[in-house]
Amino acid sequence: MRSRDTFTSEQRRAQLVDAAIAVIAEHGYPAASVAKIADRVGIAKSVALYHFRTKDELVAAVTVVVFAAAAEYIVPALAAAETAAGKLAAYIRSNAAFLAEHRAETVALREIATGYRSAEGRRFDEAVTEDTAANPPEGDLALLDPAAIFALGIETGEFRADLDPVRAGSALRGALDGAATDLARLTAIGVTYDPIAYGETLVEIFTRGVLA
Amino acid sequence: MRSRDTFTSEQRRAQLVDAAIAVIAEHGYPAASVAKIADRVGIAKSVALYHFRTKDELVAAVTVVVFAAAAEYIVPALAAAETAAGKLAAYIRSNAAFLAEHRAETVALREIATGYRSAEGRRFDEAVTEDTAANPPEGDLALLDPAAIFALGIETGEFRADLDPVRAGSALRGALDGAATDLARLTAIGVTYDPIAYGETLVEIFTRGVLA
Amino acid sequence: MRSRDTFTSEQRRAQLVDAAIAVIAEHGYPAASVAKIADRVGIAKSVALYHFRTKDELVAAVTVVVFAAAAEYIVPALAAAETAAGKLAAYIRSNAAFLAEHRAETVALREIATGYRSAEGRRFDEAVTEDTAANPPEGDLALLDPAAIFALGIETGEFRADLDPVRAGSALRGALDGAATDLARLTAIGVTYDPIAYGETLVEIFTRGVLA
Amino acid sequence: MRSRDTFTSEQRRAQLVDAAIAVIAEHGYPAASVAKIADRVGIAKSVALYHFRTKDELVAAVTVVVFAAAAEYIVPALAAAETAAGKLAAYIRSNAAFLAEHRAETVALREIATGYRSAEGRRFDEAVTEDTAANPPEGDLALLDPAAIFALGIETGEFRADLDPVRAGSALRGALDGAATDLARLTAIGVTYDPIAYGETLVEIFTRGVLA
DNA sequence: GATGAATGAGGCTTCATTCAT
DNA sequence: AATGAATGAAGCCTCATTCAT
């Protein structure tokens, strides 16, 4: 019966999501305890579990927030580009831009994606994979999966016909995810990291690599 | 008075490393407790910590073993290739072959790379990065870092002069690491995964992407 | 400034008592949290504790309500019977009838009698025993303790002189309470239970068992 | 891989069972936390959960121990009696004797029987009822259910043909369980309680109540 | 009257590690 | 070389209760 749409409540929830992002990015998912997250907000552990019934719920909120924020970068960029090659470059650059401007969010999402396990031991990405299979995204959202961009380019003849779009998509996602990992690693040891430049390198490699 | 070079001792250590690989690959790093690993060998938890003073030591041994096994695939392949392009293809294919033939090892290493934190909170790859900086590998071993292959190709003029070898190296490592992640994810939900075919896709994309 | 005699207030209190009965009967006393009870009424947990300053107070209200309801069955029945044997049968049958027609109430009361402990660890029945000792009931109410019925029968010569009325009373209360336990247990596993028939069995056994 | 049959281990387990009995009898099942039980033994909470993987396992051990102890009183007594009436009296007296000599055990078992709920909310006696239905006891053990004694007496013609053995059994069990409740209640408020005398009262009432 | 928010105590469980044997 | 026992820190979660609005 808790109505969670009060102003205060929304505020607390947002604070908690922010704190969770920071703590996860800093300590990694397994070490990101509810206690640490609540501490960072300056509230009791039990308050966190008052606003999110369970740790999993808080983590889910984090992913929703970060996904939505990322989509705001990527979807318009994709829509603005007309050719498949243009969309490919836009996809890479918007991902890089998001990473550059939302470092903690990206790292946190990466930590969750690789570190989360449900109580029964299921991986985070297993759930996502199955969800996506059950409810395939439509329209521009579908292009959030890079495989769709490669498939489009093959269809329009821009990209090599012998290209495997799914594998190429994995390669690109891997390269992009690697950026988040590099960012976390290098930041931790005090080295600065330039996601934009990395994005340009990817644009060059992947564009040349797939053009017909 | 622990002599670590006895036959049985070495044997036990090897058993434990194998068990650790299996358990980590199956349950993920955070859920891979010493108890579960010891159980799999059929010995008491305390015995595991007798042979490896600490869980971290066991994990370190796992990474050494897996790295060494991977090097046995990659180093000879690199040595056999003469051109930079050849070495690039060899690097990718030998990585893919290792992954195809040592799935548990690969997944376990990925889990560790991704989930491990030292007691002080340092990431696994932070340690590796610093170690590497302190003791740079020499000879063929140096090529285990793909950046070196790209640098070589630029030097020989095979690859584009404007290519950033370090960033290209990150892209390739990311794409390769993504394969391990995909393997873990897809295996978990019962989908078969073909690392060799993925490797060929990477060879095509990266070769075209970097050639002069 | 809490006025506890307003109409709405009385109404809320009654709703809460009803909800408490239902929740306790269904989930057992220890699992019957204030939150669950308030939820069932559709109000906030804090509202429940506004009307009953403490959970103990709510529970006390439940027992009062159920006792009163039971007394409405039992007292008139006792009054209508003239002999001790008649009162004994009336006592058993009215208890059984109450149980048959107020299953949730009976089960809830039993759960409380059995599971409740005050903050200091005192049992529910300890409090009742001491209360009764301090304020002994008078008139027909006194007969709510079956020992009084047996004592009466011994006095009138209907029952065996060597009968111990207190112990016989305990036996009868035990047999009757057992019905509530059986009811809860059997209902939970989907078996129907016939309190009336059980009552008749008790009438037969106890009547023959105590007659002079 | 824990072999739990060491001497020390058996000893600790026995200590823990004893402590659990004492704590449950004193504080009631819901308030009997693992911490309190471990405290009473003078060991860390985690040690208790080392010897019994879970609180439920400890509670199960308690019931097994108490049931076994009770059976040692009851089974031989039943076997020694030849007539149904004799067995009835023996059943009651041996129950009373056990209660008299093992007060804490009896109270604890009663607390568990009425207060235990599984994680899914199942009552203790639901489980027992279903277990018994699945694996009905044989031989003298079958007589541990008083309904069997009444059925026997009806068969031999000692008891009234119109008696319902199951309901009579419930009545007797209820009366006997009531003794445990009374014992707990009266002991708590400092009144002494004589189970043997109570048993005699029950013998008189139930024997007269069921004889043909 | 009503309620959302906050709290701290306590509950069960898991885990890496130590130690005596 | 092996191990059973013990431990304490930490983790997630539930709950009755308080308080300002």
TrEMBL record, chains A, B, C, D:
The keyword Transcription belongs to this UniProt entry's keyword annotation: yes
Q: Which Gene3D superfamilies match?
A: Homeodomain-like (1.10.10.60), Tetracycline Repressor, domain 2 (1.10.357.10)
- PROSITE patterns linked: HTH_TETR_2
Using the record's annotation, list all stretches that form the HTH tetR-type domain.
10-70
Origin superkingdom: Bacteria
Q: What Pfam families does the entry give?
A: TetR_N
Indicate the residues that the entry says bind DNA: 33-52
- List the source organism: Tsukamurella pseudospumae
SUPFAM superfamilies the UniProt entry points to: Homeodomain-like, Tetracyclin repressor-like, C-terminal domain
This chain belongs to which protein, by name?
Answer: TetR family transcriptional regulator
Which keywords annotate this record? DNA-binding, Transcription, Transcription regulation
